[in-house]
From TrEMBL:
Pfam families: BBP2_2 (PF10082). SUPFAM superfamilies: Porins. Residues 1-24, 238-258 are annotated as: Disordered. It comes from the Bacteria. It comes from Hansschlegelia zhihuaiae. This is Outer membrane beta-barrel protein.
Length: 524
């Protein structure tokens, strides 16, 4: 509001008049200074009201940690909620969406040693979220209601010099492969629903009686934010796959594909008490194997391989700092077969033999470890522990051993990401004289972007399957080289070269194979 000043002065002659003029000038100067100061202070106060407060450090989402659903190393501490930060490894940010008001409480990116499928089941492969924001070659996705969906379709062809995984004399074959994937998440400010699914078939062209080797996996996850400190988590999952050639769990006399199926659900609750977080999950999974045709005629009855697994898992974690969160975890499982006793088993020569033993087991696993971000270049989660699975057949000794699990990523530059993984599992088996399998896996991969749209990845892995109670120990080695050249956001050329070796303690079960493949990938 404008302010007007009116000064009435009575002129006086001489020195008094001069002094009055000086006083009036001084008063005007003081008044102008006060007005200027008031204006500056008012502007500063208005700007202070509009300016945002100090941003707290944001917690790393599980997807951004090493190995977690395709997350990349590098971290995002201190970033604005809507600001996309380039992540190490060449992918530039995750799809832009409002920051959730509540991150997942006590998350984990480690595999569950008690939740592993029986030996002979293929590992479940689900798509990983792909980055978009700052990368001109990344897919944008398709908006469908509250979801942002990212579908992809890949067609490839190649050559396998030992598709039957024979010790010697294997015949090579060309093959065609078709794979489709889709993943999506809601963009709600509270709660979250996610879906992931993939399907693949592979057809060998030069084998006398080839199958299609189907491989289908799907999972739907949900998180209900009851309060800022309480969450309810859930998951539904299912998979179908054909057994792998050369697998000791599959008899040599099986004709065509032997299909394995699994379905399960998880329901849990998580609670945060300041820095302490507790999470309790209940898991139910069912595993079945379809009856298989035999080369000599007849059918192999696999009904004695069907069972349900019931697991309870408790995890307690404490946030020492935003970069370090140690935890302890305990899990208990019981595996209840449909049939009390088995019909048959598979011997060391991969032949079907009569075997009648009590089926089922009970077990537990104890682990301790930490989620960490040692620097903006090293992130991950690691744990060590002990696991024990006790068969219900008293003639077998328990399967027990050290558990080592971890997912760590190191980004030495913005174009290179090194990943190290470790997994342990206690698994069921159909092999004769074996109570179960203690399996361990180590993996190493180095991804480098030669250009922003051209990546090359070198991989190496080692898998040991120790069949407890049996003399069989299988060591599998894999070396691989993969490349992807993205022509546009929606189109990419792919290629891979893979070398496999199996070194078994059982004579005449060793094999090696070389697989080369080129393909075309469409993405949205």
């Amino acid at each position: 509001m404008p302010v007007s000043w009116s000064l009435t002065m009575t002129p006086r002659p001489g020195r008094a008049a001069s002094r009055s003029k000086e006083d009036m000038s001084r008063r005007r100067a003081i008044l102008q200074a006060v007005l200027v100061a008031s204006t500056v202070l008012s502007a500063a106060g208005a700007r202070a009201q509009d300016a945002p407060g100090d941003e707290p450090l944001r917690r790393l989402d599980a997807n951004a940690l090493a190995g977690g659903e395709g997350g990349l190393a590098g971290g995002d501490y201190g970033a604005q909620p809507t600001e996309q930060q380039p992540l190490a490894g060449g992918d530039y940010g995750i799809a832009s969406r409002p920051e959730s008001s509540a991150a997942t409480i006590a998350p984990t990116i480690l595999s569950d040693p008690l939740g592993a499928a029986p030996r002979g089941f293929r590992p479940v492969r689900l798509p990983s979220p792909r980055g978009t924001a700052d990368d001109p070659y990344a897919p944008l996705g398709v908006e469908a209601g509250p979801f942002v969906l990212r579908p992809s379709l890949e067609a490839a062809g190649g050559y396998d010099d030992n598709p039957d995984r024979l010790p010697e004399g294997g015949k090579g074959s060309r093959f065609l492969r078709l794979r489709g994937e889709i993943d999506g998440r809601t963009d709600w400010s509270r709660h979250e629903v996610g879906i992931r699914a993939s399907g693949q078939i592979r057809r060998y062209l030069d084998l006398p009686d080839p199958g299609f080797e189907p491989e289908v996996s799907a999972a739907a996850t949900g998180r209900l934010d009851v309060t800022e400190r309480t969450q309810i988590n859930s998951e539904l999952r299912a998979s179908l796959a054909a057994s792998r050639p050369g697998d000791p769990e599959t008899p040599n006399s099986v004709k065509g594909d032997e299909l394995t199926r699994s379905a399960g659900a998880t329901l849990g609750v998580a609670q945060r008490f300041n820095r302490l977080s507790l999470r309790l999950d209940g898991l139910v999974d069912r595993y079945t194997v379809d009856d298989a045709k035999l080369t000599g005629g007849g059918t192999l009855d696999n009904s004695d391989r069907a069972y349900n697994a019931y697991e309870a898992r408790l995890r307690a974690s404490y946030e020492v700092s935003p970069r370090l969160e140690p935890f302890v975890e305990a899990g208990f499982v019981t595996r209840d077969y449909d049939r009390k006793f088995s019909n048959n088993a598979i011997n060391d020569d991969n032949e079907i033999v009569e075997d009648r033993r009590r089926l089922g087991s009970d077990g537990y696993a104890l682990r301790t470890g930490a989620r960490f971000e040692m620097s903006r270049l090293v992130t991950g989660e690691a744990a060590v522990g002990y696991g024990r699975q006790t068969p219900k057949d008293k003639s077998f000794k328990p399967i027990e051993g050290l558990l080592v699990d971890g997912e760590i990523a190191w980004a030495p530059s913005a174009l290179t990401t090194v990943r190290l993984s470790a997994k342990s599992a206690l698994q069921e088996t159909t092999l004769q004289n074996s109570a179960g399998v203690l399996s361990r896996n180590l993996g190493l991969s180095v991804e480098h972007f030669l250009r922003r749209n051209w990546s090359v990845t070198a991989k190496a892995s080692f898998d040991r399957a120790d069949y407890k109670g049996s003399a069989r120990i299988d060591d599998a080695f894999t070396l691989g080289l993969e490349t992807e050249y993205r022509l546009t956001r929606s189109l990419a050329l792919t290629g891979s070269l893979e070398k496999l070796w199996l070194d078994s303690s059982i004579p005449n079960d060793d094999y090696d194979a070389t697989i080369i493949e080129i393909g075309l990938r469409l993405r949205r």
